[in-house]
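Field guide to reading this record: the first block holds the primary sequence, the second block holds the structure written as discrete tokens, and the final block holds curator observations. Each block starts with its own label. This record concerns Myosin-9-like isoform X2, catalogued under organism Tanacetum cinerariifolium.

BLOCK 1 — SEQUENCE
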Amino acid sequence: MLMRYLAYLGGRKATEGRTVEQQVLESNPVLEAFGNAKTVRNNNSSRFGKFVEIQFDKHGRISG
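BLOCK 2 — STRUCTURE
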């Protein structure tokens, strides 16, 4: 469900003035919230692997 929502946002033409860079950075806390848990020895223990692919245009700007 989360990935569908992110895909929906990514497919929208209007991004409310936010750049792709801002959207990528803003998505990280949401993904972390779903993947971390408190344990006896660690208050912020990761329970997932994360792969992020960032694409650049010919001018070196993030495009997706």
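BLOCK 3 — OBSERVATIONS
The CA atoms of residues 20 and 62 lie 7 Å apart.
The chain has one domain: 2-46.
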